[in-house]
Design goal:
The complex is a heterotrimer of chains A (134), B (389) and C (272). Chain A is mainly α and 134 residues long. Helices cover 58% and strands 4% of the residues of chain A. Chain A has six helices and two strands; from the N terminus they run H-H-E-E-H-H-H-H. Chain A has a two-stranded antiparallel sheet with strand order 1-2. The longest helix of chain A is centred in the first third of the chain and has 21 residues. Chain C has one domain: Alpha-Beta Plaits (2-Layer Sandwich). Chain C has a three-stranded mixed β-sheet. In chain C, strands 2-3 form a two-stranded antiparallel ribbon. In chain C, strands 4-5 form a two-stranded antiparallel sheet. The N and C termini of chain C lie far apart (81 Å). Classes of the chains: A mainly alpha (134), B mainly alpha (389), C alpha+beta (272). Chains A and C meet through helix 2 and helix 6 of A and loops of C.
C-alpha cells in the first residue's frame, strides 16, 4: 500500500468523525421514553396505536393536503366517534399534554417538526383564551 | 487535473486567502440571516426582490456570455478561439453556481428548495429556469472536463462530446431567455412587461461575459504566462462592442416608447431610475447616480473600444474598456432593471430599497466564491495549457 | 482498477441524476398534470367573449357609499380580519415587515388605472378597502413554482399552502394588486391577541387574504363581511350563481374593478 502513513490515520479520523454522535452520548441514549396517554383518559384514536406510532406523520400530511388543498374537510369516523381532520382539531383535543406526549419522543429521536411554528399548542391556546376573556 | 489547483505562487495563495476572507464574512452573514430571517435585508412588502435576485439576473447573463466563444469556434470554425472556449465554459460553471447561491440566499425557506422538483409546475417560469440552469451547468461541466482531458492527453476529443457541445449553444440562449421570461410575463409591472427584455438581456450578456473573459486573459498574461493571442482578443473586443451597442440601442428604444407614447406606466420606472420620481412633494432618486454612471461608463467604454480599433493601444486600455463595459452592464441589469421594476408599486406608490450591511456581506461573499471558483478553474485550464506546451 | 472505478463513478452519477429527476418526470407526465396544464387556457381566450361561468367563484361587492357614510365600518372590518387570522402588527420602525390582508388606501392607489383628475371631494378623502381579488385567472398562481398557491376547485378561492411555500416571492412580483405579504421574520411576537382557533404563520412564507375559507367551511361569512353586517357595505357570495345576493347587487348597480387590464378577472367589485 502506498502512503500508508497518511491513509491509515486518515481512515481513523474519518471513522471517529462518523462515530462522534454515538461517542458523544457515551453509548447511552437514555431509556426509551414512554409518551403519556391522554390526560382525559381516552382510549380510542383514529387508528390503532401501533399504526399511529408508525404513520402519524404521513397521516398528518395527508390530512393537511386534503383539508388545505382539496377542501375535503369531511370528518373521520373511527369506532363511532367523529373527528375533524387536523392537528389542532383532532389530535390535540385528546392529547392536551403536548410536552409529555409529542415532545418526549421527538426530543429523544431528535426530530424537530415545524408544526408549532404556526400551530398553537394546547397550553398556548389556553393562555390565549384566558387573555381574551380578561 | 484537480491537483493543479494545489500548486501555485504565493500571489495565487494570497489572492485565494483574500477571497476566503470575504467568503467567511459572507457565510457568517448568511448564518445570521438563516437564523433570524430575511428581515435582516432591506427588502420589503413593496420591493420584494433585492440585491440577491438582481445579482442572479446579471450572472445568468455572464454565464450565457461564454456562448460568444463556443459559437464562433464550434459552428464557424474560428480557430483563434481554440484556447479560449474552455475559459468560457469554466466561467459559465462559476457564474451558474453563483446564481444558484443567490437563489438559495433569497429563499425564505431554503430547506424546502427541493419542493421545486417534488411538486414540478410547468406553468411557472421559475421551474423552467431551474431546468435550463441545471442543464447548462451539467453541459458545461461535462464538455469542459472532457475536452480539457482530451487536450491534456493531446488527442482529439471523443466524437460524442460534440453532441453536448452543440446542445449547449441553444441552452446558453435559453438560460437568459427564460430568466427574462421571469420578468416579462408579469401583468402590472410595466417596465418588465416588454417583449424586448429577452433580446436586451442577451445583448448585454454577450458584452458582459466576454468582457470578463478578456479581463481574465489580460490578468493571466501577466501572472500566469497565458497568451490568448492578439487575434482572439481583437475579435472578442469587436463582439463586446457590437453587443454593447445593441444593448444601448434597446435601452434607447425603451426611452422612445415611454416618452413618445406618453403612457404613464411606460415612463414611471425610467423616470425613477434616471431622473427621480416625485410623490407627495418628495423626490425619490436613490438610483439616479448609478444610472448616470451606467450611461457614462457605457459610452466611455464604447468610445475606448472604438479608439482601440483605429489606434494601437496597450493592454491597460483594453482592460479599462472591459471594466467600464462590465460595470456599466452590471448597473444596468444588476441594479436598475430589477430594483427599478418595483417602482412604482402595484398601488402606484414609491418605496425605495436600501440593502443592509448583512445583505451586502452575503452578496460580496457569493461574488468572492465566484471569483474563487473562476481562479481555481482557470488555474486548471492554464496548467493543462502549460503542460502540453 | 482505474477502469472499474471510472465505470462505478459513471453509473453512480447517472443513477443520482435519475434519482433526482425521476419524481419530477413522473409527475409531469401523469395525466393529471397534463390536464391541469390545459385547463388554464380553456376559458376566456377571446378578449371580448362573454365570460363562461363554470363552477363556484366566491366574490364580493364593496359598496363605498356605505363606507363613506360610516368610516368606522372599515376599521371594524380590518380589526375583525386581524383578530380572526392572527395578523401581526409591527411597530413603525419595522414597517417594511408589514403583513396586510385587507387594508385602507385612497382612490388613486386602489384604482391606478382610473383617472384621479378632479375627483369629487368625498371620493378624494375616502379610504378604500383593498384585499386579494381571488381572480379567475390569477397571475400569482401561474408563476408559483411549487403549487403552494393555487385556485381551489370547488369555490374559486386563491389559497395558500404555508407548508409548501419556499418563499421565493415570485407571486408577490406577479400580483397586480399588491395583495401579498411576506413573513420577513417570525410574526408571532407581534400578534396582539391570539385567536386560538387559527394558526399563526412561520417566517419565510408568503401570506394573504383567504376569503375566510376556514369560516366558510363552518357556514359562516368572512370576518370582514360579518363585521359590517346589516350595513350592506360588503356583500359576499358566489358570483357565478345568478340567484346569489352578490349577483343581484351586481345586476342593479354600476361597479368597477381594480386593474381589469391585467386580464386576471378579479372577483371583487366596487360601487363607487
Amino acid at each position: 500500500m502506498y502512503n500508508k502513513g497518511t491513509i491509515i490515520p486518515g481512515l481513523i479520523i474519518f471513522v471517529l468523525i462518523v462515530m462522534s454522535p454515538v461517542l458523544y452520548n457515551g453509548l447511552k441514549a437514555g431509556s426509551v421514553p414512554k409518551p403519556e396517554p391522554p390526560p382525559g383518559g381516552e382510549k380510542q384514536c383514529v387508528l390503532p396505536v401501533s399504526e399511529m406510532r408508525d404513520k402519524h406523520m404521513q397521516l398528518l400530511n395527508e390530512w393537511r393536503d386534503e383539508v388545505l388543498r382539496d377542501d375535503e374537510r369531511v370528518t373521520v369516523v373511527a369506532d363511532g366517534k367523529q373527528y375533524r381532520k387536523g392537528l389542532q382539531l383532532a389530535c390535540m383535543q385528546c392529547h392536551t399534554n403536548k410536552e409529555k406526549f409529542c415532545d418526549s419522543c421527538h426530543e429523544y429521536a431528535s426530530v424537530k417538526p415545524y408544526c408549532w411554528d404556526c400551530h398553537l399548542t394546547p397550553a398556548q391556546q389556553k393562555a390565549a383564551l384566558k387573555k381574551e376573556t380578561h | 487535473m484537480i491537483e493543479k489547483t494545489l500548486k501555485g505562487k504565493p500571489a495565487y495563495w494570497i489572492w485565494l486567502a483574500f477571497l476566503g476572507v470575504f467568503i467567511a464574512i459572507g457565510a457568517a452573514c448568511y448564518i445570521r440571516q438563516y437564523l433570524f430571517g430575511l428581515a435582516l435585508t432591506g427588502m420589503s412588502r413593496e420591493v420584494s426582490w433585492g440585491l440577491y435576485i438582481s445579482q442572479f439576473t446579471f450572472l445568468v447573463g455572464v454565464a450565457a456570455g461564454g456562448l460568444m466563444l463556443v459559437l464562433p469556434y464550434y459552428i464557424h470554425d474560428y480557430k483563434a478561439f481554440g484556447k479560449l472556449t474552455i475559459l468560457g465554459e469554466f466561467l459559465a460553471i462559476a457564474a451558474i453556481i453563483m446564481c444558484l447561491m443567490f437563489i438559495m440566499a433569497d429563499l425564505g425557506q431554503p430547506l424546502r428548495g427541493l419542493n421545486m422538483i417534488i411538486h414540478p409546475t410547468p406553468n411557472s417560469m421559475l421551474f423552467w429556469d431551474m431546468v435550463v440552469l441545471l442543464g447548462y451547468l451539467s453541459l458545461n461541466v461535462l464538455c469542459g472536463w472532457v475536452i480539457l482531458t482530451a487536450e491534456r492527453k493531446e488527442v482529439a476529443p471523443p466524437k460524442w462530446i460534440y453532441f453536448f457541445v452543440y446542445t449547449s449553444i441553444p441552452f446558453a440562449v435559453s438560460i437568459h431567455t427564460v430568466t427574462a421570461m421571469l420578468y416579462c410575463g408579469l401583468p402590472g409591472r410595466h417596465s418588465w412587461l416588454s417583449a424586448i427584455i429577452a433580446p436586451r438581456f442577451l445583448a448585454s450578456a454577450f458584452a458582459a461575459g466576454p468582457s470578463l473573459i478578456v479581463l481574465a486573459c489580460l490578468i493571466m498574461k501577466r501572472v500566469a504566462h497565458f497568451d490568448a493571442g492578439k487575434k482572439a482578443l481583437d475579435k472578442l473586443s469587436t463582439i463586446i462592442m457590437y453587443a454593447a451597442i445593441i444593448n444601448t440601442f434597446f435601452v434607447i428604444l425603451e426611452f422612445f416608447v415611454g416618452y413618445y407614447s406618453n403612457v404613464p406606466g411606460e415612463i414611471h420606472t425610467l423616470q425613477y431610475l434616471f431622473f427621480g420620481l416625485t410623490e407627495h412633494g418628495h423626490t425619490y432618486n436613490n438610483l439616479v447616480p448609478f444610472m448616470w454612471m451606467f450611461v457614462f461608463l457605457n459610452f466611455a467604454g464604447l468610445g475606448l473600444f472604438a479608439y482601440l480599433k483605429f489606434k494601437e493601444g496597450s493592454d491597460m486600455l483594453l482592460g479599462a474598456a472591459c471594466i467600464m463595459i462590465f460595470l456599466a452592464l452590471w448597473i444596468d441589469k444588476g441594479l436598475g432593471f430589477v430594483l427599478g421594476g418595483f417602482v412604482p408599486t402595484m398601488l402606484g406608490e414609491v418605496v425605495e430599497y436600501y440593502p443592509t450591511a448583512n445583505e451586502v456581506g452575503i452578496t460580496l461573499g457569493i461574488w468572492a466564491t465566484g471569483f474563487f471558483l473562476v481562479t481555481v478553474l482557470y488555474k486548471i485550464a492554464v496548467g493543462v495549457e502549460h503542460e502540453i506546451e | 482498477m482505474d477502469n472499474e472505478r471510472r465505470k462505478f463513478l459513471k453509473i453512480a452519477g447517472i443513477s443520482a441524476l435519475a434519482g433526482i429527476g425521476a419524481p419530477a418526470i413522473a409527475k409531469l407526465t401523469s395525466t393529471a398534470a397534463i390536464a391541469a396544464g390545459t385547463e388554464g387556457h380553456a376559458a376566456g381566450d377571446a378578449p371580448h367573449a362573454e365570460e363562461a361561468a363554470s363552477g363556484k367563484q366566491y366574490g364580493m361587492v364593496i359598496d363605498m357609499r356605505k363606507f363613506i357614510e360610516r368610516p368606522e365600518l372599515l376599521d371594524q372590518a380590518i380589526a375583525a380580519c386581524a383578530l380572526a387570522h392572527n395578523i401581526p402588527e409591527f411597530p413603525p420602525d419595522k414597517k417594511k415587515s408589514d403583513i396586510k390582508w385587507i387594508w385602507k388606501t385612497p382612490f388613486e392607489n386602489a384604482f391606478t388605472e382610473e383617472s384621479a383628475t378632479h375627483l369629487s371631494k368625498t371620493i378624494e378623502e375616502a379610504q378604500f378597502p383593498v384585499l386579494c381579488n381571488h381572480c379567475a385567472h390569477p397571475s400569482c398562481v401561474r408563476v408559483c413554482p411549487t403549487k403552494a398557491t393555487f385556485k381551489q376547485k370547488d369555490n374559486g378561492i386563491v389559497a395558500m399552502d404555508y407548508h409548501r411555500c419556499i418563499g421565493c416571492r415570485f407571486c408577490m412580483a406577479a400580483c397586480p394588486y399588491g395583495a401579498r405579504s411576506f413573513n420577513w421574520e417570525d410574526p408571532r411576537p407581534y400578534v396582539k391577541t391570539i385567536n386560538p382557533d387559527f394558526p399563526t404563520r412561520m417566517r419565510g412564507v408568503v401570506e394573504k387574504c383567504n376569503f375566510c375559507g376556514e369560516r366558510l367551511a363552518l357556514g359562516l361569512q368572512p370576518a370582514c363581511v360579518e363585521a359590517c353586517k346589516g350595513s350592506g357595505a360588503m356583500v359576499f357570495g358566489d358570483i357565478n350563481d345568478e340567484k346569489s345576493e352578490v349577483r343581484q347587487v351586481l345586476a342593479k348597480e354600476f361597479t368597477i374593478q381594480r386593474k381589469p387590464s391585467a386580464g386576471t378577472k378579479p372577483s371583487v367589485f366596487y360601487i363607487v
